[in-house]
Amino acid sequence: MKRTIAAVLFASMTTSASAADRAISRAQAVPSSDKLTLTSPNPVPINYEKYGTFEGVGTKNYKYVITDKKGLSDAAGEGVFPNQDAAKSPAYRELQKAGKLTGNHWTFVDSNNAALNFYKWATTNEDPGVKQFYAALMLERAGYIAEAVKALYAIAVHFPKTSSVTYYDTPWPVAPAALDRAVQLLRRHPEVKMELRDAKIDIEGKYDADVKNDVHTVNPGKLVAVKKRTPEKPVNLAKLKVTKTVGGPKFQLKRYSNGHWQFFVDGKPFPIKALTYSTTPVGLSPDRGTWDVSRDWQLVDTNKNGKHDGFDEAFVDKNLNNVQDADEPTVGDAKLIQDLGANTLRAYHHLYDKNLFRRLYKDHGIYVLAGDLLGVYAVGSGATWAEGTDYTNPKQQQAMLDSVRKMVTEYKDEPYILMWVLGNENIYGVANNSGKHPEAFFQMVNRAAELIHELDPSRPVAISNGDLLHMDIFQKHCPAVDVFGANDYRGEQGFGRHLYMNVRDVLDRPLLITEYGSSAYGEGYSKEQAEAYQAMYNANNWEDLEANMAGYGIGNALGGVLFEYVDEWWKANSDLPEKVQKARAAWYAPRSAIYKSLQPSNHDVVPQFGFPFLDGWSYEEWYGLAGQGDGKNSPFVRQLRKSYYTLQSIWRE
């Protein structure tokens, strides 16, 4: 079970029709190479009370007891537990006879053949909850949306305590993911006349990596047929009482009496449509010491003409011939980002050019999420990469606080600073010991947040966590942090209703997705297919955020930071100093022979780690909304991908 789609959790119940209409299905983006035809499809919800009894609903002792298995199987339809018609299908037998279903079932997650994927998963020997999830996924991809919803809901009824693992061997609770995806599908497909009501699975102990201490409280709710599904109207926030405010008159968070949160700039609602930006010239690499990824993107001027290579001198290579033709004027990334509809950039660690950011703000309306990495990657603590930041070390603690103080003191009076952001998924323990000492790390986060509020009470402070890992410890130790930020790559449908619910129920704070995005490459897929998938992924993730902003759904989303604006070619590079190689040995060991050949002057297509993307892998050199062509005209050339234009149509609506 090493290659499950990493934490595939999905969305909320309510949004406007226009927002749901923006969502794109995988089948639309990358049509299957073969059509699936079910022998016994059944798009009608199951009346589970007719075929069994529910016991202990809403408790830790929940279970569903089947009393009429034959009747339930017939009502379920092919691919939905306990129906076994898939194994009797002539199509299945034909594929099996032809030897097309041989091999490990995990290789049938990301292949571009709906029929093969479905029949393999519907008949494989796997944990029944995991098996049902992927059978449902294949039904969805094949266009059987109602049947997919039934299959997803069946997990909550029959297998609510199923837990699998991600690529990183972290727990993946399957049933909450299934419920969230079912809700997402229903929101985006009003033609499926069903509603999922009151379903919720809560897991005590879910914020650590140990499933042995998990205790499930299960209410599967009901999946029912309706005559017509109409989107719920947005909440009229103007009629609600504001129960809490954070920040000053220019940058302010408001919590309403219904628990929704909204961010305001100059008194107007401000959904954060942010990007990460680093116009790294091809051939340079922070791993080689030839590029400072935190600093140099703000100062890059390779042609020494006093202009920023990216913001001022980038051009769009419309015909993809890698040269600047007469009809391809210099436009600059600043204008392209403004035209995209983005309103914010994320700076991971400090700012270095006030004049640049003043100009971006004045001329293009671009704000900045100003960050301090707070010791991750051993930045700001005084530790070396090999040693890693020690959050229990008083000397390193003071160094990190001094770093935060320097940033805030220097920039607190600048009008473009939107919010302060601490860290970047530190809790995963990269060149730091927060994974071993999460309490010490979060105590450090709170000290930094308190310092920021003392220096600048006019803006909120956020953390950039790794998903929800140790969110319970964060809640215990970080009362001074105003916004829970999380880097999340949960899949093509979005982030998941349970994500928003957990942040609401545990923290009562707003949520900012501090990273999301997808590769524009997939092994075995064409350039057009891979870029269409990336566009679908990014659009659906934003739609999911929008569906949970104030007035809709759970109502606590503030927006998100798309990773990233332009490709960087150094990210699969392993030509590293000896100390760094040693520190990253575990990361590179599985593919050491391949990685030795990688160079920052190549646009590498070697899979780096398992992610819920097109072929199940991440290619971090391919995350950009724009490519750098063949690299010869770097860092000036921009080949805009479908993702750019898809998001532009949404963000500028």
Structure description:
The protein is α/β, with parallel strands linked by helices. Among the domains are: 17-225, no CATH class; 242-270, no CATH class; 271-342 and 489-497 and 518-653, no CATH class. It is built from 20 helices and 25 strands. The strands form eight sheets. Strands 13-15-16-17-18-19-20-21 form an eight-stranded parallel barrel, surrounded by five helices. It has a four-stranded antiparallel sheet with strand order 9-10-11-12, with no helix packed on it. A three-stranded mixed sheet has the order 14-25-24. Strand 10 (251-256) and strand 11 (261-265) form a beta hairpin. Helix 8 runs antiparallel to helix 9 (174-188) and helix 16 (527-546) runs parallel beside helix 20. It is globular. The two termini are 42 Å apart.
Mean pLDDT: 92
Rounded Rg: 25 Å
- Structural class, by secondary structure, is alpha/beta
What does the main sheet amount to? 8 strands, parallel, barrel
From the N-terminal CA to the C-terminal CA, the straight-line distance is 42 Å
Please provide the count of β strands.
Answer: 25
Widest sheet: strand order?
13-15-16-17-18-19-20-21
Helical content (DSSP H or I, runs of 4+)? 25-40%
Question: How large is the count of helical segments?
Answer: 20
DSSP strand (E) fraction? 15-25%
Q: Stretches where pLDDT falls below 50 for ≥5 residues?
A: 1-17
Q: Can you tell me the overall shape?
A: globular
